[in-house]
Amino acid sequence: MRLLGRIWLHGVLLFAGVIALVMITQRVMSDFDTRMVMRHHPNLAVALANGVLARASDPTALEAQLADVRRETPLHVTVFDAQHRVLATTITPPLPPAPVVTPGPARWKDDRLVVGAFKDDALVAYAVLQVPPAPSVPLHAALMLGAALLLAFVFVAAPLTWSIARPIERLGAFARELGSGNLAARATIERSDEIGDLARSFNTMASQIQRLRASERELLGDVSHELRTPLARMRVVLDLAGAADHEKARAYLAEITTDLAELEQLVDDIIVSARLDPEAPRWDAAQPPLRKVRVAIGEPVEAAIARFSARWPDRELAYEPCGDLLVVDADPVLLRRVVDNLLDNARKYSTAPIAINVSREGDSVRVEVVDHGIGIAPEDHARIFTAFFRADRSRARSSGGVGLGLVLARRIIETHGGSVGFTSELDRGSRFWFQLPLQRDAMDA
Predict the structure, then answer these.
(1) Domain extents for the chain?
(2) How many CA atoms lie within 13 A of 193 on its CB side?
(3) Which residue of 92, 164, 182, 322 has the fewest C-beta atoms within 10 A of its own C-beta?
């Protein structure tokens, strides 16, 4: 049952308990009030007795009248004839007869009242009335209070504590355990209501925190490895260059230049990725300047292709020029960097030809980079755009990078108001794409 239904049910039970308490109180107080009225206003009791005595000569009518008295009042009534014989009564055994009955106003004596019916000063019949003893007010109040507390506990407090308060207390204990550093703690509440949803959200949050901590440790190891490798190579090359001739020293210096370029690219990727992080603080000084201009999408794509072909002349690359109609408002340097990263990613994980497709889809332009390499395992799809994640975890220099290329590409495209995605199958290759909105006049054309 959902939490709202539980609360509603508790409210209904509470309402039913209050109604029951009111009915009980009304019944008890009604009897109590009747006794008090009869005691303090004897004329009412006398009138009631006279009504009964008026039917003393008709046994059937007399029984009917006493039945009404029994049903509507708490009084005990016994009717006698002049010879003190019982004619009718509301109580068994009957009340004892009065020793003497005289004309005149009737008064309560202790808890009894005697009312006679006379004819020519001769007693015809008389009625003896008695008010049953009433419980004292303190006892009465204590009983009502006890009943109210019992009803509240049985029908409201206990179910509410069991179904709501205790699970929330368990969630609080889990949160405190998680906050103390036990990232493996999980809530063990299996329910289908809002509290169950909260417990599952807690578990999801705990799992995410645990993954982030693991990624942080992996990040430290990855960055240390990526920085240590080129630095170590440069140290070795410098040692060799110091003992080599002029020509060999020039070759060694060229290798150092390559290693420095790798370090510069790594640091630059980290800085730009951090500045484009959508969850980072929005500090103007921390944002990279976007130099947006009207640019045909083919320009940054072809610039990236030319750069790729110059670096990897033996890799086959298929591309169909798209003309100058697909115009976007973007930073061409950052767009070229996106295509650079996608091409380089395709090169690392495939040996087959790579294809670039550029097309228009509605009000957007779509750029795809398709490879026929090793593909991506299904369990890794959710982490592809996670910083420092790599499908190839060997960290071999042949595959290069630290897992920032796709993250950087995604953040650049989303900063331009576009979207990024991919499809991939193991051993069949991957298709990465991004879309950007077209310029309005280009859409009209």
Answers:
(1) 210-275, 289-444
(2) 12
(3) 92
* Whether the Cβ atoms of residue 128 and residue 114 lie closer than 8 Å to each other: yes
For the segment 254-280, what is each residue's pLDDT rounded down to a tens digit? 777 766 766 776 666 666 666 666 555
Task: List the structure tokens of 64.
Answer: 């009917």
pTM: 0.47
What's the pLDDT at 285? Answer: 45
How many Å apart are CA 401 and CA 65, to the nearest integer?
A: 106
Among 361, 342, 325, 356, which Cα is nearest to 437's?
A: 361
289-444 is classed in which CATH architecture? Answer: 2-Layer Sandwich (3.30)
Q: What is the distance between the alpha carbons of residues 261 and 400, in angstroms, rounded to a whole number? A: 13
User: Mind listing the pLDDT tens digit for each residue in 165-216?
Assistant: 677 778 888 888 888 878 888 888 777 777 788 888 888 888 888 887 776 6
Of 225, 254, 226, the C-alpha closest to 240 is 254
Measure the CA–CA gap between 54 and 43, rounded to whole angstroms: 16
Which residues neighbour 24 within 8 Å (Cβ) at sequence distance 6 or greater?
144, 147
Tokens in use for 444? 């009209």
Q: What's the DSSP call for residue 81?
A: E
